[in-house]
Design goal:
Residues 348-505 form the Tail sheath protein subtilisin-like domain. This is Phage tail sheath protein. Residues 513-617 form the Tail sheath protein C-terminal domain. By secondary structure, this protein is an alpha+beta fold. The protein has four domains: 1-22 and 544-624, no CATH class; 30-88 and 329-520, Rossmann fold (3-Layer(aba) Sandwich), CATH 3.40.50; 89-185 and 313-319, Immunoglobulin-like (Sandwich), CATH 2.60.40; 192-302. Helices cover 22% and strands 22% of the residues. The chain is built from 14 helices and 29 strands. The protein has an eight-stranded mixed beta sheet, sandwiched between helices. Strands 9-8-7-18 form a four-stranded antiparallel beta sheet. Helix 2 (65-75) packs parallel to helix 9 (437-450) and helix 8 (395-403) runs parallel beside helix 10 (476-482). The radius of gyration is 36 Å and the shape is elongated.
């Protein structure tokens, strides 16, 4: 009810509907990991086209199976992918910036690897305070990325401290200050000088007699001149300003040694406190501003020289050097691709990615890598597409692979055989033998968009765009030895061309009788799990009783009913197709006491028609009896 009812009349209030709409997540965001000639190392880069890949990683490369896989992914209908460049080891490019005497800043590339050698850092003094601050611009010529940071200081107490403004903001470089502590302590006291003035000064009057002075970044003191006495001469004015500042800042130590002086027609204000934090600023008066007529402050023709100005880097342009990487070899495969979760290397670079659905490691068939990769996609509610080993050329070789221990026996992965031939733009269209995972991932994406994640990415409409031939042309009988083992075949047929002709997971062997035998069933379950996980966060900390359970049933039921109407489930009616249950039978009083609410969501999956059996029978003529 309204918060306060205090007068007779009509009150209006808005009530919540209790509906928290659940939105289905994306189903075909792919992630690729592999070698590339350039680009950031161990960083998941978001791509929306192959042009994005070319700009970041250098495009197609004969030694990069990933480059061809990403290209095939987008050609076959993929719309978004992440690419991770992996190497055995990488060093970071860097460059020191000097003030002419010592190195004061170290500029390091954010991303390790040789791409950092294309970064050039440029310092200039075209700032609002040209006598104290500097600008830093960085350009990465490899992809023409440009960043500019203006009005920087090396005073760590300054609001424009370079490290605070650059680090964590720049996508190209990080800074570290390399000035010894003894040098910082020995920096001279800061000053601010006016422009050249007449003696006695002109322009001081009842409407131009105030300004403010701030020392070492502290709260300013107002100077209110007593005219005409304080303006009788520049010397008298300097003496008066010193007195006014000290009187206005009585008891504040940072102002105790402040001093104003006049020499050669120039007023000079000196902090009196040396070291890194020393600074003097003149600010406009609050009422009768005199800073302008006295030419105080850089905006009025003066010069503010902070102590930290002495450690500014000189105006220069300098390339970063020393970046490089060591490509992985067969012995380095596990360390390069699995990496270290703590520092997010290898596939764990995907820890920085909110959502991905498909993982491809083009050409990688190392059992250690695949086992860890499938464990990771299971944790992330994603799916691993595996290439058949390139040594498994004939069906008999692949049968040995499927019956051995080289591949993970998981419903969160599927293997595709054989490898494919595509036209290689780097060799004027000559055929190149390539891993099929990128092509298959693009097919998954196209099928999801056209038919839904519950449709098997296989059949006569599952054409493989860009595939000119297969490394082995399977016959029906040969596929008959592979399909019962859970190996998905790529086939060529007249008219239809190259197509995907299998839809089983690596738990799809007939002998396993697994619930998630088929790729679309597993991927539909992953879609439901991820969507419901994200769509029920609002339930946490709500009162755990029947009103909450009713809301849960309403919201999840609406989501499941939408999918039913789209044809995602088996069954003629919602009752046949799915179940959402959340009540006192799923959540007991003991569950409530432990803070638990249990929700049961069941669905009847659509399974693909793998075998079409047509019975032909003669219809005998009718006998007259």
């Amino acid at each position: 009810m309204p918060a306060t009812l205090n007068y007779p009349g009509v009150y209006i209030q808005e009530l919540g509907s209790g509906v928290a709409t659940i939105t289905g997540v994306a189903t075909s965001i792919a992630a690729f990991a592999g070698a590339a000639p350039m680009g950031p190392v161990n960083k998941a880069v978001d791509l929306f086209s192959f042009a994005d890949y070319e700009r970041t990683f250098g495009g197609l490369d004969a030694d990069s199976e990933m480059s061809y896989a990403v290209r095939q992914f987008f050609q076959n209908g993929g719309t978004e992918a992440f690419a991770i460049r992996v190497v055995k080891s990488a060093t970071t490019a860097s460059a020191p910036l000097s003030n002419g005497t010592i190195d004061v800043l170290q500029v390091n590339a954010v991303d390790a690897g040789s791409a950092g050698n294309s970064v050039v850092a440029t310092v200039d003094y075209g700032t609002a305070l040209p006598s104290s601050t500097f600008n830093l611009s960085v350009v990465r010529t490899a992809d023409n990325a440009v960043e500019t940071f203006n009005n920087l200081s090396l005073n760590s107490a300054d609001a424009r401290y370079a490290l605070d403004l650059v680090n964590g903001v720049s996508q190209i470089v990080q800074l570290s200050r390399t000035v010894p502590a003894a040098t910082l302590t020995a920096l001279p006291a800061a000053t601010t000088r006016s422009g050249t003035l007449a003696d006695p000064p002109v322009g001081l009057n009842a409407t131009h007699k105030e300004f403010q002075v701030s020392v070492n970044g502290k709260a300013p003191v107002t100077v209110d001149l007593t005219l005409p006495a304080d303006g009788a001469s520049l010397a008298a004015l300097a003496t008066a300003i010193t007195a006014h500042v000290k009187a206005g800042a009585a008891g504040r130590n940072e102002y105790a040694l402040f001093e104003a002086s006049a020499t050669g027609g120039v007023l000079t204000f000196k902090s009196g406190v040396a070291g890194e934090f020393s600074s003097v600023r003149v600010l406009p008066g609050l009422a009768n501003n005199a800073a302008g007529v006295l030419k105080l402050g850089s905006e009025n023709g003066g010069a503010d020289v902070d102590a930290a100005a002495g450690i500014r880097p000189t105006a220069t342009a300098k390339f970063l050097t020393g970046g490089g990487e060591v490509p992985y070899a067969a012995a380095d495969m596990y360390g390069a691709f699995i990496g270290d979760r703590a520092v997010r290397t290898g596939i764990y670079a995907l820890e920085s990615v909110d959502l991905f659905n498909l993982l491809c490691l083009p050409g990688i068939t190392d059992s250690g890598v695949l086992n860890d990769a499938v464990a990771y996609v299971q944790e992330r509610r994603a799916f691993l597409i595996i290439d058949a080993p390139p040594t498994s050329i004939k069906p008999a070789d692949m049968v040995a692979t499927m019956t051995g221990t080289a591949l993970p026996k998981s419903s969160f992965a599927a293997v595709y055989y054989p490898w494919i031939y595509i036209a290689d733009p780097l060799k004027n269209g000559k055929l190149r033998l390539s891993a099929p995972c990128g092509t298959v991932a693009g097919l998954f994406a196209r099928t999801d968009a056209d038919r839904g994640v519950w449709k098997a990415p296989a059949g006569t409409e599952a054409s493989l765009v860009g595939v000119q031939a297969l490394s082995y042309a399977l016959t029906d009988r040969e596929q008959g030895t592979l399909n019962p083992l859970g190996c998905n075949a790529l086939r060529t047929f007249p008219v239809f061309g190259a197509v995907s002709w299998g839809a089983r997971t690596l738990r799809g062997a007939d002998q396993m009788t697994d619930d998630y035998k088929y790729v679309p069933v597993r991927r539909l379950a992953l879609f439901l799990e991820e969507s419901l996980y994200r769509g029920t966060q609002w339930v946490v900390f709500e009162p755990n009783d029947e009103p909450l359970w009713a809301q849960i049933r309403l919201n999840l039921g609406a989501f499941m009913n939408t999918l039913f109407r789209q044809g995602a489930f088996q069954g003629k009616t919602p009752r046949d197709a799915y179940l959402v249950k959340c009540d006192s039978t799923t959540t007991t009083q003991n569950d409530i006491n432990r803070g638990v609410v249990n929700i049961l969501v069941a669905f009847a999956p659509l399974k693909p028609a793998e075998f079409v059996v047509i019975s032909i029978q003669q219809l005998a003529g009718q006998l007259q009896v």
